[in-house]
Amino acid sequence: MKIQWNFLFGIVFALIVAVFAVINVDSVTVNYLFGTGEWPLILVILISVLLGGLMIGSAGLIKIYSLQRKWKAAVKENESLQLRLQELEPVQAGEAERVETITAPTK
Question: pLDDT per residue over 25-39, tens digit each?
């Protein structure tokens, strides 16, 4: 359900940006580091939104990649701890039997 709401929010946001961009069709001067240029405001708005989305998307992908690496490391550590536990269970069971026979009072 969350994905559907995100998709719906994305569509509404895209429509708002499109309407805002279509309303602003005048040419504007864009200053670069090495010069200036005349661009329609609609392109400036759409390119700015696109670049912002790419930056947010790349930050999200980096976070997902980081979490996947942590997940794989945790799974690997869990597996090694499970193997270690399986190795120690027979030893612990043997010690528990020995402790019971030693500490049990006989009269």
Answer: 788 898 888 899 999
DSSP code string of 25-85: --EEEEE-SS-EEEEEHHHHHHHHHHHHHHHHHHHHHHHHHHHHHHHHHHHHHHHHHHHHH
Q: For the chain, what is the radius of gyration of the CA atoms? A: 31
CB 45 within 8 A of CB 17: yes
Helix 2-23 / helix 41-103 crossing angle, nearest 10 deg: 160
The model's pTM = 0.58
Residues 26 and 43: beta-carbon distance below 8 Å = no
